[in-house]
Specification:
By secondary structure, this protein is α/β, with parallel strands linked by helices. The chain contains 13 helices and 18 strands.
Length: 454
């Protein structure tokens, strides 16, 4: 028998479907688009996309967080290119790193040539020493030291990662960070130190949508294109409870309470701790451990600027200095010139906060970012900020610790035992790019759609 709440009262309506997908981010939309009328996708927000959404501030457009497509699988590339056609344009990323000893291209370890000669020499000497030791790192701080040596760590990796993770680096796991950590060989680093030609990182082949003027812009073009392929997408449906035994998910919407009954599969792209907590009679100890999973929220501060566009910014710039709040500044018109009026440009500042800590008020955060922008000298003569907005993503980044990985693995096994499949970046409580998210979702839906064999 179900607990009295939230199941005490009967639902206003019931819907039966073969596959029920919770969440209409990229993972849910990709799976739903492939399954067609065999699936229902429910989403709490008033439009699909999850993190892959784009907002308009006056006549300026801003993605919620930085987005650039890197295709890691040919099937995903073929599907997305067929979906978007000529709207999807090549956008090879140009990222810069600001350090106290100068500016160079990202990734810094492959582009030491942009730094002063004495800094390059010190970086290379420490790097060779670190690699000669060939030690096994026990935590993230040790991993950085063993990969790059003391000088490069003090110059970039330590201050940047302190701002990014907002907790001691020695408390983080030595595994789980490969998505943002290019680890080239000593020879490759030496080549980047001795050649003025910029070295490419792992994600040198980028893509970004550039639709015709007059309509929606930004990476939400991709989300909306996928959503258009989902026959049954229920927006403004917040999941309030999941009963795996009766294969029922209860939602609340402006129209009332709906019970969705799935005959075969339930896929959850909701954050892993949320899915566990929603499950009827989930072990309380597991629920508590999932609630305590460490993560950071991303506060993206969008600034609409009127005035001449700055030159040679790159698509985004990383900032190691700890007297400014942002880890990086993202220049939206570098991705698509029509993201702002011809006489203006937009910049997105990324600020990280531990999710277990206090959340800064939006107006205080904007003021802090504006001071930081002034400190780094971004606004030139004739430029003024004419609009701002804050977008909050929580969770934004999963924090990797050995204990957290054990908890996430236990939670995933528990859900699988109940017939619930976690999917997506937060559903599986890891980091994955947009391409990886879609690859996993398409692959799952293809397996689900494949005819049974005897």
């Amino acid at each position: 028998m179900l607990d009295p709440s939230p199941w005490a009262d009967p639902a206003d309506r019931e819907v039966e479907t073969e596959v029920l997908i919770l969440g209409a981010g990229l993972a849910g939309l990709a799976a739903g688009s492939l399954l067609g009328d065999r699936a229902v996708v429910v989403e709490a927000a008033d439009r699909p996309g999850g993190l892959v959404r784009t907002e308009r501030v006056g006549n300026y457009w801003f993605d919620h967080v930085i987005h650039l497509l890197y295709f890691s699988h040919p099937d995903v590339e073929a599907r997305v290119r067929a979906l978007l056609g000529d709207v999807l344009r090549p956008c090879p990323p140009d990222a810069r790193v600001e350090t106290v000893r100068g500016t160079t291209r990202f990734p810094v370890q492959l582009n030491l040539h942009g730094l002063p000669p004495e800094v390059r020499a010190a970086c290379l000497a420490d790097l060779r020493t670190a690699h000669a030791r060939n030690t096994t790192p026990g935590d993230y701080e040790e991993l950085l030291l063993s990969a790059f040596g003391r000088t490069l760590c003090e110059l970039f990796f330590f201050p940047y990662n302190r701002k990014l993770w907002r907790r001691p680096l020695s408390t983080l796991s030595a595994s789980g960070f490969h998505w943002n950590l290019t680890r080239p060989s000593v020879a490759e680093i030496e080549r980047g130190a001795n050649s003025a030609r910029p070295a490419e990182g792992y994600n040198a082949r980028g893509w970004y949508p550039r639709p015709a003027p007059g309509g929606r812009r930004g990476m939400e073009v991709l989300s909306q294109a996928l959503a258009d392929r989902v026959p049954d997408l229920r927006l403004r449906h917040t999941v309030t409870a999941v009963d795996p035994m009766s294969r029922t998910v209860r939602t609340r919407s402006p129209e009332g309470v709906t019970d969705f009954r799935f005959t075969h599969d339930c896929v959850s792209t909701l954050p892993l701790p949320t899915t566990v907590e929603l499950c009827h009679r989930a072990p309380e100890a597991l629920v508590e451990r999932c609630r305590a999973l460490p993560r950071n929220r991303v506060r993206s501060v969008a600034l609409a600027v009127q005035g001449p566009r700055p030159r040679d910014t790159g698509h985004w710039r990383y900032y190691t200095r700890e007297d400014v709040p942002f880890t990086r500044l993202v220049f939206m018109t570098e991705f698509d010139p029509d993201m702002a009026p011809a006489d203006g440009w937009g910049v997105l500042a990324e600020v990280l906060e531990p999710s277990e800590g206090p959340r800064a008020a939006d107006d205080a955060l904007v003021a802090d970012v504006l001071r930081g922008v002034e400190t780094v000298g971004l606004l030139g003569p004739g430029s003024r900020v004419v609009g701002s907005r804050v977008f909050t993503s929580d969770p934004g980044y999963v924090v990797f610790t050995d204990k957290a990985r054990e908890t996430a693995d236990e939670a995933t096994r528990h859900l699988a035992s109940l017939g619930i499949t976690p999917l997506g970046r937060y559903g599986t409580w890891t980091y994955s790019s947009m391409s990886q998210v879609m690859e996993e979702a398409f692959a799952w839906a293809a397996r689900r759609s494949a005819p049974a064999t005897t």
